[in-house]
Amino acid sequence: METLNNMLLAVPKMATDDYVGFTFFVGCMAMMAASAFFFLSMNSFDAKWRTSILVSGLITFIAAVHYYYMRDYWATNAESPTFFRYVDWILTVPLMCVEFYLILRAAGATKRLMWTLIGASTVMLVTGYAGEGVDQANAQVWGAVSGAAYFYIVYIIWFGEAKALATSAGGEVLKAHNILCKFVLIGWAIYPIGYMAGTPGWYEGIFGGLDMDVIYNIGDAINKIGFGLVVYNLAVSSSSK
Ligand SMILES: *C/C=C(C)/C=C/C=C(C)/C=C/C1=C(C)CCCC1(C)C
Fold first, then answer.
1. Which pLDDT tens digit goes with each residue over 171-180?
2. Does 192 fall in a domain?
3. Which one of 70, 191, 220 would you pick to mutate in the ligand 1 pocket, going by the greatest count of ligand atoms within 8 A of its CB?
4. Is residue 127 part of a domain?
5. Any ligand 1 atom below 6 A from CB of 147
6. Number of domains comprising the chain
7. Helix, strand counts (H, E) of the chain
């Protein structure tokens, strides 16, 4: 009977103190709801904002699918789904770079700027995966390289070419750009904390007691849904005029 139940239902139990399992579950639902919200609202905006809202929806939708698998992987193996985590990020973080390009396009953003941001984010994530999933013994070195790529992105959007374009655009676009910049500086800084909680290094004594997956899951909810809502808000305030 027990076996039959397992075969038919196959829903593993979840302990009430399984915060990783819980945040994977809630994260999955939140990403699905956010995707429905972005996709369904898309056509109520002027044509020039539709691609931005579509990309917001794609970011949360790709995450929803990965969260579905990560939740399952955790429930089955009680182990961090590092591979799925990084596949999710390697698809969604470049799309967040595309969002910067899309909102600054009217101000003259070039494809070169877009590819520079995408390139830096790829370096950041590939080296992060190397330290977390492949060569943990050198996690601090990989983490430092990843951090350098991260700060390069911060530099471009806060002080570099992207900032200059946003300033020349002014108005709602500048406001939205500045909020997205804060997401990258503060919201994205959650991830290196998760990394330090889950890999060996000088920082173990500081962050070692925290749970890497819980931190990553909180980071994803804030950054993917929050980022999308900033773009949504920009579309609302610019379409009504
Ligand atoms: C939706 C997913 C997002 C916004 C993921 C962002 C991930 C990062 C900003 C990760 C950064 C890392 C470092 C800066 C150093 C340590 C390794 C990483 C990959 C965790």
1. 999 999 999 9
2. yes
3. 191
4. yes
5. yes
6. 1
7. 12, 0
